Amino acid sequence: MTELGVLDLVPIRAGGTAREALDDTVDLARRAEEFGYRRYWLAEHHFAALASSAPAVVAAHVLAATSTIRVGAGAVQLSQRVASRVAEEWGTLAVLHPGRVDVGLGRSAGRAGQYRDALRRQGTPDTPAKVDHPVVDGVVLPEPRDLRGLVDSPRTATALAVVSPPGDAPDYETQVRSVLHLIAGTFTPQGSTNRCI
User: Fold this and answer.
1) Is pTM, for the whole model, over 0.70?
2) Continuous H helices in 35-146
């Protein structure tokens, strides 16, 4: 039998609140559990209309409201956390909910500059607006937005500085090894005592 899972971005509906999105997540997780889904994954995203920027907190909320489905992150962004914090948060969840916690490790470092460049390459202000919008499968596609004002906004600058601070990103492989060794209890200040598998 194929095991099924759900990946939830915890979207905040237009006109809705983050609390409503988190309540919807619990409802969806309960339904997924009821219908026999094996895992419930929470995606980590920042500064978007999503309530999933703190996956360990959302996972705790979902775990407390369910009883059998495995809950995890797909994936915790190591570029924004230190290894010890990841091991502590998810290790604590695993102690509270034995056999039900998964954690995926991801990276997103070094992309802030690429985002800024891509946003600045948007069309020029002199680009004439199109009157006829393309329709694909009955869906009217809006014109591409000029996002240069957003790139230069104080909010975006703050978000990019917080999520991807300047400087070299921590080495992903080292961070993954540190998380695994911290969970296994084999981490030392000089490095791991055993080689990670």
Assistant:
1) no
2) 55-65, 83-96, 112-120
